[in-house]
Amino acid sequence: MWLDAVESGQELPARIMFATMQRLGRTEVPAVMKVICYRHRYFGTPLSDLIQAAMRGPSCWTVAEREIFATRASQSNECPFCQSAHRGIAGAYIAENLVDEALAAGDNSPLRPEAHAMLEFVGKMVRDPDGLTSGDADKVREAGVTAEAFDEAVWVTTLFNVINRVMNTVGAEALEAGQARVGARFIKAFGYRTPPPVRYLSRGAREPSGFEHA
Question: pTM of the predicted model, to two decimals?
Fold first, then answer.
């Protein structure tokens, strides 16, 4: 069930931005945008800044590889919204059939060996964290993944463990193909940070009494 507060509790800058997006994109505003913009100073803006750094900052992994890691994490967490969204975003950087082949089980992956090995680790990290062993890490190292690259992929996975649970909690459903394409174009053009109209014009939630800045 969709969380009504996320729909009805938006401030004016967000409502204007959503109306504009619907008019120009001719599709519903993605659920994650409503979640990020709702009381964004408490949650959405800090989280979106972390996701922007992990998914678009300097990295040992390509953007497409990071999006595929995010999709695999979302699959393992059974998050239909994030799975459909990030499959679409990955498909904005490489051919969609290559994304699907990368996500399919088996050794016929179009990914380079390092990314293929890391993808398998990501899936197990989410699906069966207690079952991870030193042998799983050894397989990743043997494929040529450096310690830095390993940490970056684990950080991507950790962030999506958070956002997957949030999106499942609010009841976000899988995107239709057209919605996924529009969302992918938006993310490719503007990134993951809270949109400027909300980031700079929305007051956000007021701080509770006793927490005012001196």
Answer: 0.87
Tokens of 70: 């995010």
Is the pLDDT confidence value at 203 over 80? no
Rounded to whole angstroms, how far apart are CA atoms 51 and 46?
Answer: 9
- Per the rule left: phi > 0, alpha: psi between -120 and 50, beta: everything else, 66 is alpha
Amino acid at 57: G
Looking at residue 204, what is its pLDDT? 58
CA distances from 31 to 15, 34, 142 (A): 13, 5, 39
pLDDT in tens, 14-56: 888 888 888 877 778 888 989 999 889 989 999 999 999 999 9
Give the count of beta carbons closer than 10 Å to the beta carbon of residue 94: 18
